[in-house]
From TrEMBL:
Gene3D superfamilies reported in the protein's UniProt record: Glycoside hydrolase/deacetylase (3.20.20.370)
Pfam families from the UniProt entry: Polysacc_deac_1
Classification via PROSITE patterns: NODB
Lineage: Bacteria, Pseudomonadati, Bacteroidota, Flavobacteriia, Flavobacteriales
Top-level lineage group: Bacteria
Record-given protein name: Polysaccharide deacetylase
């Protein structure tokens, strides 16, 4: 797996080598530009694709899982629509993991408590879910994680160890922050794109086509569209004999501090 530090060292070495060669050969200026462009492209790709683990180790599936087990995860709640999601999960005896925004927990504490009361797992999804989260300083990220963890702990007496970065964006500041807060970064390997695609059938098809034992599905418990997709998905999983488990059960990594 490519890592930020390795790519950075490679690019620095390439620049130094090109500079040294320029004393003996006609090294074109664009050679240096190509190295920089490669570094920039890898940085952008690594930042936006949590599955690469480019900046920080992220858990996106369990490839060793041979049984028909899968984890459904929901981002951006709790939300009034979460109630319908919970109704469906209960109807199909499925467990899920909810990555909750701190400010949303404050708005809907009763729904948050219902998530836990019904045997699901919760994780930290920042306090603000700001569009600028990827530009936050290390300390600002730490503050957001601690603020949301404090809300979770106040309402549940549980200290959450899971963190899913907003938009799945990672960078060196986020990596340093989770090292300080001791969170496990949880990603996914089956992204529904339910916030971008309007056609429910297309969302369902996309998820089904990427289905495999040990996978983690990303949905959002914030729209009726996703609720409708979830019902069809749970029917499909039931027909294929899949068991929907929480992420801690799938990865064998504790969701809360003992």
């Amino acid at each position: 797996m490519l890592k930020h530090r390795n790519i950075l060292l490679f690019c620095i070495s390439a620049i130094i080598t090109l500079f040294a060669l320029s004393f003996y050969f006609d090294v074109k200026w664009w050679s240096f530009l190509l190295v920089f462009a490669f570094w920039l492209a890898m940085t952008i790709f690594g930042s936006s694709n949590i599955k690469t683990g480019y900046f920080v180790k992220s858990y996106c599936d369990n490839p060793a899982e041979k049984e028909l087990k899968i984890a459904i995860s929901f981002d951006d709640g709790p939300h009034p629509m979460t109630e319908k999601v919970l109704d469906l999960l209960g109807q199909y005896n499925a467990k899920a993991t909810f990555f909750c925004i701190g400010s949303q927990i404050e708005k809907h504490p009763d729904i948050f408590k219902r998530i836990l009361d019904e045997g699901h797992v919760v994780g930290n999804h920042s306090y603000s879910h700001s569009n600028r989260f990827g530009f936050f300083s290390t300390q600002k990220v730490v503050d957001e994680l601690k603020q949301t963890n404090a809300i979770i702990e106040r309402l549940s007496s549980k200290k959450a160890l899971y963190f899913r970065p907003p938009f799945g964006v990672t960078n060196p500041n986020i990596a340093r922050a989770v090292a300080k807060t001791n969170h496990h970064v949880i990603g996914w390997n089956n992204r529904s794109l339910d916030t971008a695609i309007e056609d429910e059938a297309k969302i369902l098809k996309r998820v089904k086509n990427r289905m495999a034992p040990g996978g983690i599905i990303l949905l959002h418990d914030t729209s009726l569209k996703t609720v409708n997709v979830l019902e069809q998905l749970l029917l499909f999983l039931q027909s294929k004999k899949y068991q929907c488990v929480t992420i801690d059960a799938l990865l064998n990594i504790p969701a809360y501090e003992n």
